[in-house]
Structures are given as structure tokens and as C-alpha cells.
């Protein structure tokens, strides 16, 4: 093999660019390979970027140069039935200042910028190049990658597979099996343009401040999943994210769910008068630790969505921050192993310890039962209806005598066909998943 | 317009299809399929079920999302790989 790098990173998403940046800063020669025409060309997120402190630690004051849309100071959670909705709308003006809580961004722009930071650190970026295979030696240890180009063998001390949810590399290395249609969701998204002043008036925003909506309940048309609507500078990002198995079982088309979502009475007034700018689709790994592959092998580390490190439970959909954090840890572990002159699995195990000590694997282990809990039929469809039903009974007016809360609640539970014992069991399960 | 057809949606996306289809569907295997999950799950509606029960597929407007092979009901029916470097879908504003 003629071309050789200390570290070859596959995929210039947030995980790959972070890994390349860190390994290059540690003095290693790094090749960052991306199959798209540019970093971000293939990538889709909401996108709300949470825990930006992770990036600030790598690129101080990144908000001065990164292409960001709005700084998020408000988060609304909206429970829906077909005709009604109940919204919890939280605002914290303090989130407009450092340390920021979250930003909205557009991936094709952000990913390009992040890859440029890796290049500035000394990494070489090679776009328009597909990695087809891992090259392995007789003992099975990964020694490089084969790209779909003439003379496409590239030698590497360590390969970082940051190749996203489909990760054919982790599968090829035997670190994980086939994706299960219960463990992944499909997100279909639209960016809808709205002029800036209309958008700010409609969402009650000032300056660069923005907000996000997460929707649960009937907006996903009976399919397990949810929907989102985020404010950008002069556009809205909105979409529906639904479990692949459930989509196939219910025999509904994702694009029809998206249309139904935009037509919901809670959503239609928010998107009115907008103009479609771009439609997109991408999968999300949603099963947490249940789908996590082995994170390292001889000469190989797996980071970001490729490792299933996307935190997708109910109100939370966070992957960019975990991708950056895991990419960082992978870049560090690769450089440290090379410094010691050993790149076998044992030498790379520091990667996992680092993730166990930080927030990444702590979060995934702590919330291990949450993904299954939020995908249950009752949580998906029964409880959002129960909440909106309760709200309606309490708030409606009429010439009948008003009922007290407990009797309203009993009647709504009966209407939803939910025995009290089931409610109690779900509260305990929910508590276990989220509260303790 | 806020409400759009799939054709209008796909018209907003830039595709540079690979000359060699990156996904192929084995019609022989599909003959035994009764669920046809690919037809419902593909966000670009690239799988069509004909009246004689066969499946036609076109790769030109593919998002490379992978949903079809994950949803597919029969082993080996879909051969899936990424299109050549720089080809396929390029998102610009998402
Ligand atoms: C609809 C939707 C909404 C989301 N919303 C949010 C959100 O609001 N906030 C949030 O934090 N997260 C969100 N996520 C999750 C987030 O997008 C992911 O967790 C994140 O993109 C993972 O980053 P990554 O670098 O691991 O993978 P990716 O971003 O997928 O990057 C992988 C890269 O590898 C490249 N690649 C793959 N295979 C090869 C190959 N063989 N050769 C060369 N290059 C290759 C790809 O082109 C790509 O650039 C959302 C996801 C979806 C689908
Ligand atoms: S990869 Fe996605 S867009 Fe392409 S054919 Fe399969 S489901 Fe459709
Ligand atoms: S789901 Fe798979 S086997 Fe069934 S028709 Fe579609 S491609 Fe063929």
C-alpha cells in the first residue's frame, strides 16, 4: 500500500470531524474521508444542537464563526389529539447567554464548517470518496480502508468508523449485526422558508433567539414516533420521526404523515404562508444501549451514530453532541494508542472507559429502559389523548354543573379504556425510565 | 405553498444519480413477498407494486437513507450500497 496515515477517519459528520481534529492536534497524520460532494451533503438533523459546551471545549467561542441559526431560549412540548393540543412552553432568558443551552443549525453548512476546523488542525479532507471495505491482516486486525477509486488502498494505524447510522464498516468488522426495524426510525423533514419578521412575530421571538416544539400523540398518525418544529433564522425545520417497523406495519407513507402533521390544527397556523425550500430523509438509531455495538476492535474505533450513540427518547433527540463527544474520545484514544506503539483492541479500550466516565455512556446507561418505554402503544397514543382529554374536560364551559378533578380523571381513564392499575404500573415504569 | 405533493418535495432536492444503480431489487425474491414494506417505507416512493404483483424500483431520487433494506421482509431481496463518491443526493438547506 502506497498511501499511509496514522489515523483514517471515515465520515465527515460531527463524530468524524471531531475525531480528526483531536487526532491531528495530538500530532498525528489524519485522513478524513467523506463520500458526499462536501461534508454535510448527506446529513440530516432537526437540528437543535444541545450541550454546546462539548464543542466549546474543542473550538473556543465557536459561535463567533460557526454557521448557527438561532440560540434557543424556549422549548415547547405539545401533546396532541386529532383536534386538540396541550402545550407546555418553557422559557429561560438566561439561555441567551453563555453557557448557551442549545442552538439551531443546518447540517450542510455546519458540517462543512466543522470539517474545516479539522483541516485547520492539520487533518487532510478527502471528499467524493466512498470507503467500501476495511482492510484486515491475517489476524483480523484492521490495517486500513479500501476506497472506490483506482488504487484505492489506504493504510492506517487506526481506523475510526464515524460512518453514521447505517455503518457498514462496524457491521463488516463484526462489531454489530443487521439493523432491526424496531431499533431505527425514519425522519422525514422539510425546511420551510418564512420571512424573518413574520417568523419572529409568529413565535414571539426577538433578535437571534429561537424556540423548538416537540410534538407527541396523534401528530404521528398512530405510528410510533413524534414530530418536531424548530425555528431557524428565516425558515422552520419540521418533520416527523417514526419507527421503521411501525411504518411498515401500519402501511402508511412517511410523506403522508408529514402532510398530516402540517395540517394539524396546532401546527397549521405556525407554517401558514411558508414556502418549501428542501425535503429530506434520514434514519435515526433509537434503541440506545440495546443496539450499541462493541465500540472497538483491533485497529478500529466506532463513534457517533455508527455506535448507536443517539439519545432519542420522547422529548429528547440529541445526537450531534454525543457524536462530537464520542468522536473526540476516539481521536484521543487513537492518538494515545499510537504513541504507545500498540493499536490492538486492548490498547484502544481506553476509548470506552473515557465514554463511561463522561456523560456519554452515563446517559445511555441511566436511561437504558427509556427507549422501549416511550415506544409503547400507551405512551404513544393513549396518554397524549388522555392529557388533552383531561384539559378539555377541565377547561370546557357549558350549562352543566362543574365536576371536580378526580371524577373528571376517572371518567377520562374509563373513556381511554385504561384501568387504574395499568396507569400506576406505567407511572412506575416511567419513573424507572426517567425519574430515578 | 405549505402543503406539497411528493413530486414537489422531490423537486427541491439535488440528485446526481450514479449511472450504475446503487440499489438493486431481486424481482424473483419479491414474488414471494406478501407485505411489500418497501412500498410504504420509502420516503421517496421509489418502490411501486404493479398489478401483477411485481415490484419496480428506480434509484434516481434516492436519499440513501437505508430504510428500504431495514424494512424489507425477505433476506437478499435488496442489494444496497452507497452511490459513487460525490454522486447521489446532496442536501443544501436542511
Ligand atoms: C430527522 C432527524 C432529526 C434529528 N434531530 C437532531 C437534533 O435536533 N439534535 C441532535 O443533536 N441530533 C439530531 N438528530 C441526530 C443526529 O443527526 C445524529 O445523531 C448525528 O448526525 C450523528 O453524527 P455522526 O457524525 O455520527 O453521523 P452522520 O452525521 O450521519 O455522519 C456520517 C458521515 O459519514 C459519511 N459516510 C458514511 N459512510 C461512508 C463511507 N462508506 N465512506 C465515506 N463516507 C461515509 C456520511 O456521508 C456522513 O457525512 C436527528 C436525526 C434525524 C435523522
Ligand atoms: S435508501 Fe431510502 S430513499 Fe433510497 S430507496 Fe431506500 S428507502 Fe427509498
Ligand atoms: S419488502 Fe423486500 S421482498 Fe418485499 S417487495 Fe419490498 S423489496 Fe421485495
Going by CATH, the architecture of the domain at 21-83 in chain B would be 2-Layer Sandwich
Profile the largest sheet of chain B: 2 strands, antiparallel
Number of domains of chain A: 3
Structural class of chain B: alpha+beta
The set of bound ligands, ions and cofactors reads: flavin-adenine dinucleotide, iron/sulfur cluster
Helix content of chain B: 10-25%
State the shape of chain B: globular
Class from secondary-structure proportions of chain A: alpha/beta
Uncertain spans of chain A: none
- Between the first and last Cα atoms of chain B, what is the distance in angstroms? 18 Å
How does CATH name the architecture of the largest domain in chain A?
3-Layer(bba) Sandwich
The CATH H-level superfamily of the largest domain in chain A is: FAD/NAD(P)-binding domain
CATH class label of the domain at 21-83 in chain B: Alpha Beta
Give your account of this protein's structure:
The complex is a heterodimer of chains A (436) and B (94). With 436 residues, chain A is of the alpha/beta class. Helices cover 36% and strands 27% of the residues of chain A. In chain A, the strands form four sheets. In chain A, strands 1, 2, 7, 8, 9, 10, 16 and 17 form an eight-stranded mixed beta sheet that branches. Chain A has a seven-stranded mixed beta sheet with strand order 5-4-12-13-14-11-15. In chain A, a hairpin with a 7-residue loop joins β12 and β13. The longest helix of chain A is centred in the last third of the chain and has 20 residues. The model of chain A has no long low-confidence stretch (mean pLDDT 94). The two termini of chain B are 18 Å apart. Chain B is of the alpha+beta class and 94 residues long. The model of chain B has no long low-confidence stretch (mean pLDDT 96). Chain B is globular, with a radius of gyration of 14 Å. The chains are: A alpha/beta (436), B alpha+beta (94). Bound molecules: flavin-adenine dinucleotide (FAD) and iron/sulfur cluster (2 copies). One iron/sulfur cluster binds next to α4 of chain B. The site of one iron/sulfur cluster has 12 residues of chain B, from α4.
